[in-house]
Amino acid sequence: MADPEHLFKVNVVTPDGLIYSHRSSIIDMRAIDGQRAIMYDHTPILTPLAIGDVKVKRSREMSGRVDHIAVNGGYLEFSNNVATIIADSAERASNIDVSRAQAAKERAEKHMQEAREKHDQQSLKRAEIALRRAANRISVYNTRK
């Protein structure tokens, strides 16, 4: 049977397993080379993702609901109307523990300051990534309805 809404499957997988699986009309995410949107029948693609918010617009029967998922990098593969995101970690907005994310943000800021004082570029870079991940989780958490 034909799909009148032109929906495709979206799966998000982490080392802990499948954390998200729904049908979508469009997904929007940040790849390392810029913003991307994927729709039904998109050309097959494999692209690395940046730390960011993956927005999944659901079907009309779901009132056009948009699910937000915080991903910490990874890859998006799209072919045969299936989008698969493979990430080291990913959390739906509704599952984010914002107090834990805030604590991670504060720790990262502290580590950045210590690394600057010691002129430790490697530690500074790790702390900056940790800060971006924590800030992303907080931002995605704030998008939930």
UniProtKB/TrEMBL annotation:
<dbReference type="GO" id="GO:0045259">
    <property type="term" value="C:proton-transporting ATP synthase complex"/>
</dbReference>
<dbReference type="InterPro" id="IPR036794">
    <property type="entry name" value="ATP_F1_dsu/esu_C_sf"/>
</dbReference>
<keyword id="KW-0378">Hydrolase</keyword>
<keyword id="KW-1003">Cell membrane</keyword>
<keyword id="KW-0139">CF(1)</keyword>
<dbReference type="InterPro" id="IPR036771">
    <property type="entry name" value="ATPsynth_dsu/esu_N"/>
</dbReference>
<keyword id="KW-0066">ATP synthesis</keyword>
<keyword id="KW-0375">Hydrogen ion transport</keyword>
<dbReference type="InterPro" id="IPR020547">
    <property type="entry name" value="ATP_synth_F1_esu_C"/>
</dbReference>
<comment type="function">
    <text>Produces ATP from ADP in the presence of a proton gradient across the membrane.</text>
</comment>
<feature type="coiled-coil region">
    <location>
        <begin position="98"/>
        <end position="144"/>
    </location>
</feature>
<dbReference type="InterPro" id="IPR001469">
    <property type="entry name" value="ATP_synth_F1_dsu/esu"/>
</dbReference>
<dbReference type="InterPro" id="IPR020546">
    <property type="entry name" value="ATP_synth_F1_dsu/esu_N"/>
</dbReference>
<keyword id="KW-0813">Transport</keyword>
<dbReference type="Pfam" id="PF00401">
    <property type="entry name" value="ATP-synt_DE"/>
</dbReference>
<dbReference type="GO" id="GO:0005886">
    <property type="term" value="C:plasma membrane"/>
</dbReference>
<dbReference type="Pfam" id="PF02823">
    <property type="entry name" value="ATP-synt_DE_N"/>
</dbReference>
<keyword id="KW-0472">Membrane</keyword>
<dbReference type="GO" id="GO:0046933">
    <property type="term" value="F:proton-transporting ATP synthase activity, rotational mechanism"/>
</dbReference>
<dbReference type="GO" id="GO:0005524">
    <property type="term" value="F:ATP binding"/>
</dbReference>
<comment type="similarity">
    <text>Belongs to the ATPase epsilon chain family.</text>
</comment>
<protein>
    <recommendedName>
        <fullName>ATP synthase epsilon chain</fullName>
    </recommendedName>
</protein>
<keyword id="KW-0175">Coiled coil</keyword>
<keyword id="KW-0406">Ion transport</keyword>
<comment type="subunit">
    <text>F-type ATPases have 2 components, CF(1) - the catalytic core - and CF(0) - the membrane proton channel. CF(1) has five subunits: alpha(3), beta(3), gamma(1), delta(1), epsilon(1). CF(0) has three main subunits: a, b and c.</text>
</comment>
<feature type="domain" description="ATP synthase F1 complex delta/epsilon subunit N-terminal">
    <location>
        <begin position="8"/>
        <end position="90"/>
    </location>
</feature>
<feature type="domain" description="ATP synthase epsilon subunit C-terminal">
    <location>
        <begin position="95"/>
        <end position="140"/>
    </location>
</feature>
<dbReference type="GO" id="GO:0016787">
    <property type="term" value="F:hydrolase activity"/>
</dbReference>
